[in-house]
Amino acid sequence: MMLRTAFTSALWIGLMGVCLLAAAGNWVWPQGWAFIAIYFFGSLAFVAYYARRDPALLKARLEPLNTRGTPVWDRIFLFTFIGIWFLWLIFMGLDAQRWHLSAPVPVSANVIGAFLIAAGFLATFAVFNANSFAEPTVRLQRDRGQHVIDTGPYALVRHPMYASAIFYLFGMPLLLGSEWGLLVPPLFIVAVALRAIAEENTLARELPGYADYMTRLPYRIIPFVW
Prior knowledge:
Layout: H1 2-24, H2 30-53, H3 55-61, H4 72-99, H5 107-130, H6 160-176, H7 184-206, H8 210-216
């Protein structure tokens, strides 16, 4: 199983890398390779660790296109999100290396972006350690005995996975040097916020105890804010 999941992970990273570098037209672009390296080693650590700790979670996370039991609205969201993600990646490669729409950013901004992406990985690990049911799609996992998780990062916000994504979303354009790319993360955040509301409607209706959890913890994504 570990070899298959490692191959799936490498395939996704390879596809991202090819889209980014081909769009940039520069196969030795340092910031592009830094982005690929962070994702590669972060994903490698994820596969190696969860292949032993939680194989079911690993399998679910690396099969995002398996939408069995997923509501139609979430399938539409998922495929749209993935498509826009790749278009965004391609645009940032074009912007930073071909079109030069953005002014050159200082190296310090690239470094901050790299640290934000790394922080996103660490936050995601904390989410996975707390919640074995953190699948990429919205569905009630009766086959895995899903129950409410309210410990770890889930004691701070109801959707810590979305909170961790904020680090990735702002880190990527900073690392890649695309100021125009920074216009996209707020749109992604609005999209996942709307998805969080729809997801909660499903869980409150179908998962015992989730409505009480929503009452006890009022914050969805940002502690003490929303």
